[in-house]
Amino acid sequence: MLGHKAARLRRSGAAAEGPRVAALEKRAQAATEAESIEVGCGEAIRESDTFPSGLRDTLANPTLVAADASELPSRLAVGAGVLEMALDVAMTFGAENSIEKMLAHQVALSHKMAMHFGKLALVQEDVVLASKAHKLSSTSMRSSSKGCRP
Fold it and tell me: Cα 11 to the chain's mean position, in Å?
């Protein structure tokens, strides 16, 4: 995208845009170059990032774009509190690409939600709230079990 923007500016012939064109081209080139990136469980992790250690795995020559795209699902799983479960599900399923890994992460989150709302349904004294929590738990269980089918 940056390369296309630089090409449009260059074609426009605006002399004042020369430095901007050069900067855009430099950023576009940097985004496609391989850098020192470690790979864990199929996730690209930059050396400069603080990310859970102990992850090593599949991307051979990742670019910055690949690193950003690859680590985002794991960061989201960390934020949802399901990283370990998500990685376990992905490895159990034998997830080999980004989509399979994202689906495995969704199964992990659905499972967590099913258990959370199930617990709330069991301890809730208000029948209406207990019924709503039970319905949410059941819906999450259906979602996670659908994700587990081959």
Answer: 37
